[in-house]
Design goal:
It comes from Thalassospira profundimaris. Pfam families: DUF3833. This is Lipoprotein. The structure is a single chain. With 163 residues, the chain is mainly beta. It has a single domain (11-153), classed as Lipocalin, CATH 2.40.128.20. 8% of the residues lie in helices and 64% in strands. The protein contains two helices and ten strands, in the order αββββββββββα. It has a ten-stranded antiparallel β-barrel with strand order 1-2-3-4-5-6-7-8-9-10. β5 (80-84) and β6 form a beta hairpin. The chain is globular and about 40 Å long. The model is unreliable at 158-162 (pLDDT under 50).
Length: 163
């Protein structure tokens, strides 16, 4: 699957427009056997300054653990982005066409009292009514160890759906 495969799909996913302001996500992590390991919510605040999108992500896991990640994202071409965060190794590379965005990056993922160096192949698909579906395959040493699935909504879309 390539991002270009989605060039004609709508609604078009404008990353900066979607994430500016507040959004919320609900997610799960399943291990490679399909066993649900974690559930979580994420409250996200996006600000744009000088052409750079900063995403402040506050995670709350079902076991009460909390975490925070701050992404700094730049659009570097018509369809390309780069992103950085403290636990991301180097730079995340993003490619967006139509309703899809694909991020590829390595990360030091907290696991218990330690960290694992893992690779993410992260796909986001904007759906009608402002729903953003995110599926990420997670690999360690080239072997898939699990999958993260998230659903994002903007507050104004949540209010409209309730009416």
């Amino acid at each position: 699957m390539k991002p270009q495969d989605f060039a004609q799909k709508e609604p078009v996913f404008d990353v900066f427009d979607y994430f500016e302001g507040s959004s919320r996500a609900w997610g799960i992590f399943e291990d490679r056997f399909g066993t649900l390991r974690r559930q979580f919510t994420v409250d996200i605040t996006g600000t744009i300054n000088d052409g750079v999108l900063t995403l402040e992500e506050d995670f709350v896991y079902d076991d009460g653990e909390t975490d925070r990640r701050v992404w700094v994202i730049s659009k570097i071409g018509e369809h390309t982005y780069e992103g950085r965060a403290d636990d991301v190794i180097g730079t995340a590379a993003g490619s967006q066409y139509g309703n899809a965005l694909n991020w590829v990056y390595d990360m030091d993922l907290k696991v218990g009292d330690g960290t694992w160096r893992v690779s993410f192949n992260d796909w986001m698909f904007l759906q009608p009514d402002g729903v953003l579906v995110n599926r990420a395959r997670v690999r360690k040493w080239g072997l898939e160890i699990g999958e993260v699935t998230l659903f994002f909504r903007k507050p104004q879309h949540v209010a409209q759906a309730a009416e």
